[in-house]
Amino acid sequence: MPHVSPKAVVAKTAQLADDVIVGPFSYVGPDVRVGPGCVIHNNVTLVGKTSLGPGCVVFPMAVIGAPSPGQDDPGGECILGEANVVREHVTIYAGAESPTRIGNHNLIMIASEIDAGAVVGDQGIFDNCSKIGAGAIIGDYVRTSGFAIVGDRVRLGAYAFVAPFGGVLRDAPPFAMFQGFPVRVRGVNTRNLKACGFGDNDIQALRRAFRELFTGPESRPDPEVLSRLDATKDLNPHVRKLVEAVQAAGAEGRDDG
Q1: pLDDT (tens digit, 9 = 90+) per residue, 52-76?
Q2: What class, spelled out in words, does domain 3-135 have in CATH?
Q3: Which phi and psi angles does 61 have, rounded to 5°?
Q4: pTM (global) more than 0.85
Q5: Cα angle vertex 168, ends 162, 170, to 5°?
Q6: Burial letters 94-106, b for 16+ CB under 10 A, else e
């Protein structure tokens, strides 16, 4: 049986795994599902069609699954994978048109916000007061610093890093460090890549590609360099992913922020 505080409110139709812990003054709504090993601390609110995978931990005053401000539809959906840590005062809004999805092993820190329909990959770390806009798509192993913003429907590539108070307002490539509002490319996120097991050869190849691609004052990719890299047959596979991401952003008109 789940260990539910007598001071918590859990709807009869909510589905809790046998070892779930729910602290005092928390509320778990009727359409909520909580997987094994989850810990719901005190003063947490889980509403809507919210699903938590195994091993998630939700800290006090967090709200998951609420409709976005100005939207009364309570039928939105919010799906979290396994082993996510949601710290104090975090708000994750449910997606009405498409579910808000959080992958596995993410750390979402104090007072951060993830808006409706956003898709977050795996192994991300989002520092205090980060904001992920509605419908944004965040790659794996992304890191944001405090008060960073990713705009609505923006794609932020895997292994990227956003500096404090940075504003990612248009699609941003993987592997990069971003700074400013709106952000500029400041180089390759070397520290994160090394921590994730990238070899020196791959990191050096990415550094060379970034130096050539992003030379302008607004960090716009150089189209001639992009074409040359795309035509290179033995291009490093990680550089190939970078090129494809930049091309996709241009083809969809996303780089005119």
Answers
A1: 999 999 999 999 999 988 776 667 9
A2: mainly beta
A3: 70, 5
A4: yes
A5: 140
A6: bbbeebbbbbbbb
